[in-house]
Amino acid sequence: MSPLGSPEIRVSRPEYASIPQRTSDDETYDVRTDRRSRFEENIEPGLGIHMTPFASPTSPGKSYSQQSTPKAGMFSSFAPLSPRPLYQRTPDTLYSFGTGISRARTDPMTERLIAHRATQSAQWKVHWRTPSIMVLAFTSGILLALAQHFWYKFLHHRPTYDEKEKFRWVLYGRALAYLSKVAFGGCCILVFRQRIWRTFRERALSVLSIDHLFGATDDPSLFINWETISNAPVAVAIATVFWIIPLATIIFSPGALTFGDYLEAGTVSRTVPHINFTQETIKDWRRPVTYEPSEDDLLAKGGNKRSLMYYNTTDKSENPTSPNWFDYYDQPSAELRRVALLFGYNLMNHSTHRLNARQLVCGKAEAGGPYNCTYTQSFIAPAYKCDLVADGIGDNSRLAELGAPFNTSALLPEGRNAYQADVGLGDYRRPQMDNFQRGPGGVPAGEVPTDLGVFKAEPTLWIGWSNNSTEPLAAESPYRTNWTHRYDPKIIRCVMNEARYTVDWNFTGPYFMAMPMLEFLGPVLDTNFTRNEDGSLNYSTDPVPADNFIRPLPDVGLYKKMAAYHAMGEMLRDFLGGHIELEAPLPGPSYAVVSSDVTKTRLVGVDSLPKKDFGKVLEQFFADMVLSLYSAPEMLVVENQELEMNRTQWQSSFVYVPQRLWTCYLPVIFVTLVILLFGMFTVWQDGTTFSTGFSRILVTTRNTTLDDISRGACLGNDPFPMELMHTRLKFGVLSEGSENEFMGTEGFQHCAFGVMSEIRPITRGVPYAGLRRRKQDLRPSQGEEES
Length: 787
Hints:
single chain, alpha+beta, 9-stranded antiparallel beta sheet, 4-stranded antiparallel beta sheet, 18 helices
């Protein structure tokens, strides 16, 4: 007889469902159902699940068990109940009730869990884990951003030429950026999860929108769903931040570290070339000084240091024994002539230097670009001091006082010369005497003259030139016949001085710059020639005072230094002597007639005429000639000096720009902090914490209405029914009058997703328990009817 057609019976005592236990694969289900579980034997009265046997409609001879709690509603009337069991065994649905189908539980642990959960209700408290993880994630994000900053700062300007190492270091920074994204994103996700549950409680949303909110961190479809945007703007905003954070942390923040060139600067102590004319004072040509070139020197190994001048002697034996023998000046050495000629003819506005001068001075870099360096150096050397003594036509008063060999009348426009130089007056006589012994060495034949090799005067340079002012001549000018523009004659007087050179060296790139500043210490030889009756200087007699003459004996060192200075001056005078005539433009043509080597130097312009500020140009020209001695390290006056220098080098290295990093992170930190504070407020407002795992979905969808409407979609596969997708659900308390109404005592209500008509708001603090028992019509089993 069918259970639905059986008369109503009353159960005198509860019976508990037996737990089938399988002993072998050969046992049939009927044999297994006769076994009793240990729970049926040992369970205390009042616990467990009350079961009532009933007959199967299809197998009248077999008896099955169903819940003894009758279900009120469409199938049967309510019957008085025995004491209420604490938990139902298997809640039925509209479709399963009354069919005689019962799902057997197969393990004791499930029975134990059911018995325990039957006494539980919802706990209203803020668990420490979620707020702690929120704060920890936010703090970790900041710490990881700082770690990325300090890592990039460590790499800043750190050169590396190992590609594998470079790649590895970049990955470390990106790993920190990724972990920072995980931390900030994790904080946002936790707040987002907390917020969507409040949205579910406040707003009814379609299943599609609920799907989008649950999957917001994986599926950006949320942002094209107007329902979620309009009904859950805060949650959507948090999700937006979560999706943007990777752009700032992973994509843009590593851009703060680039690889490029930077100028590495430092101060080092190095050995550099230095000019020291005192080396000539102790030099004896009989005992050569060995020259030891550096490893990077282009010169061949071996050889001796070279002097600035050649000497004659009164005794050329290796170990002179003649009384009062001495060496005396002859002429500039071939090495000095080479240096002077290379400098004088190069037409560059600086001294000459060796091709690898920067590498030798600044050092050879093992990696990266070549070194650049700057340093200041000081030494004593000869220099010319030039004074303007005539400026303009007829300005000859001072010239007469000083005994100049010519005046402005020799220069344009009165004369024919655009340039005129008398630079050898009173020069050291060469040869010093008429009779010498046969052979080299300049050994005097006979008695040695008392003034042999004596420096009595250093020639004064008298140089005049005329510059074209480019101003047209007036019509009444007497020079209008031959000249179209005004020429201004000038005359300078240059005296060799001993000077302190202070040179600022700057070796940058393939170029170098030397800026010498001169401090004149006084004339190298202070004597003056007497005058003739007409007031001109008498160069045929010795100058005065004779006490200022510099002799080979007794002060050999002073004599040799003077000889070195004189040799330098002699090389300059070789360029300057002579004159340049300029043919007048009327009747024309105008051209220069050159009788001087000065046109081979940078002292004149492209028009073969002297430069305007000729005196200053000449002083700089001679100073650069002295500095050009550096180009010949084999010269005796060039030695090594230890000094401090500022050195720079272009390095290929990491370049870190902190502003770029913090431009990415500061907005993320600020926005995440706001979200964190909002999440803390939401937790306080809700009184508990939420999550979105399967476990939460499991317990919040226990609603028979959802069972009913989801029939045929239990696989959850695609395509999902659209009518279900558009069904609007809300999270709350299943309201009174529904199938799941509470049991008459406040607190034993059930919270779940449901349709709007069956949902009431959740009240904070109420101990919600779960689904109430279904009221069922129980029919006696076949065995009981027969009894």
